[in-house]
Amino acid sequence: MLGEKYFQLDMSYWGRSRRLVIQILCIWALVAYGLPALVIETNKMNYLGFPLGYYNCAQVIPLFFGALLLIFNHVQEGIEAAQMDGKPMVEAASSSALNAVLMKVYVAYTGGFVSFVLFLGFLEAVGVPDQAIGILFVIFTLGMYAAIGIASRTSKSDDFYVAGRNVPPIFNGMATAADWMSGASFVGMAGTLYALGYDGLAYITGWTGGYVLVSTVIAPYLRRFGSFTVPEFIASRYQGTVQLPGGRVVEVSGVARFLATIVLLSCSFTYLTAQVYSTGVIVSRFIGIQFEVAVFSGLIGVLFCSLLGGMRAVTYTQVAQYVILIIAYTVPAICMSTTQDDGFNKNNPVEFLVYGGTLQAIALREKEMVLLGLASKVTPYLEPKWRRVDFFALTFCLMVGTASLPHVLMRYFTTPSVRAARRSVTWSLAFILVLYMTAPAYAAFAKLEVYTNVIGQPLSVLPQWVFTYGKIGLTSVCGKAVTSVNEAVEACAQATGGDYLLRLKDLKISKDAMVIATPEIAGLPYTIAGLVSAGGLAASLSTADGLLLAISNALSHDIYFRLIDDKASIQKRLLISRVLLVVIALMAAGTAASKPADILSMVAWAFSLAASGNFPALVLGIWWRRANAQGAIAGIICGWGLTLTYLLGTVYGGWELWGGISNVAAAVFGLPVGFAANIIVSLLTSPPPDNVLAMVDSLRDFKVTGEDLTAEELEDIKEKEEALARTQVLQVSNTAEATAAATPATPTTLESSI
């Protein structure tokens, strides 16, 4: 009887959901780490010309993550249907109508943009200067984003903070993808793969795998809670009191809120600086202005959207930006793909099926360059150079960081329901995969083009793009950024440019230049290069929009309104938020103008800071009822503090790497410390108060979450709850008995269930 009771399955909604999440995560971990562990062995096998180990990490694993989310959604919705006793879940009529309207609008918008690109192609054919075409691309796209910002302006708090919570899943997925695919993905990803080869695939595996964590572990529960920001959830989840020396009892949720806001600021500002930096690279190249001036010029498009319409304007702008960036990224890759004839494919436009022959050609050219004396040694492009622990550490930090970034999690506050939030995550990953499946092909095509048509050529016939990007410091020949053949000859200490053949070590190309330079490297029309610039600008600005909004909302809502002036009107809070937007944007531009590091490194730092600071508090807050305020505070201070210390010490303090682990994977140290501190301190201190435990239960209980309510009914409940919350006052006395009876002036259980 005891064994029968012990092994009896919990068939409640929470029990079944929890088992499903555990099963999905076990499969996820097995694939994410099992296949890369076997790369050396599987690279000896070939599939359509691809080394199988490389192809698994570049294409198979990301696609598998997408399939895993589809399975998870299907099974989880089946569990929820069982709770409804066969009653279908009602979608809000307003959300369905909005979906239909948006579909028509963005189809027309896409057609208009394609027509604009064709028109610019015609202008190029009739002799319009290249720089004029580049300027038209930049002006048109910035103007379009500003127009959307003006059309979406709002003074309603729900619209400004969470886009009215009625964004359909497919469009929220597009907006999240644009928010996610920053300058790091668009500008830096292919460049990193170009430079690192196989090892760069850690970024693709980590960033796509992170969305499995988002969908299964965090996003649905944050949407069910119904807050405006991540720090607001942490403050409400981690309520508690501490008795100070002298007998005074104080509420510590404000401390948790403050620390969560500090974490948000640290990771978001680092990420924002990277986006502004990439904006400067693109604008300076295609308009021909100084990098420092370009950095500040690019802020205009960002501020128009963020200032006027908040999350509502940013959401609809990001959908438009996704359309541009994905067209801009895939068109050059398709153009290069159709020129390939490798024995497996001929004129095949499906780029991620074609570049196997290109990879083989790269491997042969590497050997050939050594034989011809053009290189003393070439690190094989397809083989791992890092230790496996380095690859796995970076992958792990990027996965966990993805599930911890405030500006990404904020996007799932905008959906009409919990089910819509889950579906939105799946759509997000689907749209992201379009770019990430293309990036390895993009890098391979560019690599072969440089190896074949640049390395081994006389200085006198170097292509013009080498000098064009030399003007802005993104290429160098013999250690100098050159702008002409004469400068190249001088840099290489040669008498003439006709005899000396360029060696591999003589040419350096910045990882941040690779994507925007590839159309010119491949000899594609300048209109394609301008299209890529517009896409890169869209990627950087869309992410900058989301980051600025996350930072300003946290400062205005979580710091100013919650901790400084809780009687501030909506109008005053929105004004504070808009002022902060401008100040933060200017600070980020000033930092980016100093060129602190390459784009991808800055972004990886942000992921580590977010992972170590947010992930333990979020996961334990949802999945472990015993986690309390003291534990959360200790976890954030220890985990985030250790990660930040390691980053600063290795980047600026001259520290040696701990165990050889790069600082881009700094969270591998801070994350376990954050979890351990949270758990140990929580167990050594008193449990959370009853109202917090009730809130945690409400996050897990399908019946009381309002999942079967329409968006209109949810909004009505929210308005009533906000009116009730305004009438409540926090009562804290000098005795523990009075504290236990006090009602905190934070969102109550009913609000938490929305």
Would you mind describing this structure in some detail?
It is built from 32 helices and six strands. It has 754 residues and is mainly α. The strands form three sheets. It has a two-stranded antiparallel sheet. It has a two-stranded antiparallel sheet with strand order 3-4. It is globular and about 85 Å long. Residues 12-80 form the Sodium symporter small subunit domain.
Summary of the model, kept short:
With 754 residues, the chain is mostly helical. Helices cover 70% and strands 2% of the residues.
Measured distance between first and last alpha carbons: 41 Å
CATH architecture of the largest domain: Up-down Bundle
Helix- and strand-based class?
mainly alpha
Whole-number total of structural domains: 3
Transmembrane segments: 20-40, 52-75, 96-120, 132-151, 171-195, 201-222, 255-274, 286-307, 319-339, 391-413, 425-445, 528-555, 575-593, 599-624, 631-652, 664-685
Family: Belongs to the sodium:solute symporter (SSF) (TC 2.A.21) family.
Domain Sodium symporter small subunit: 12-80
Membrane topology: Multi-pass membrane protein
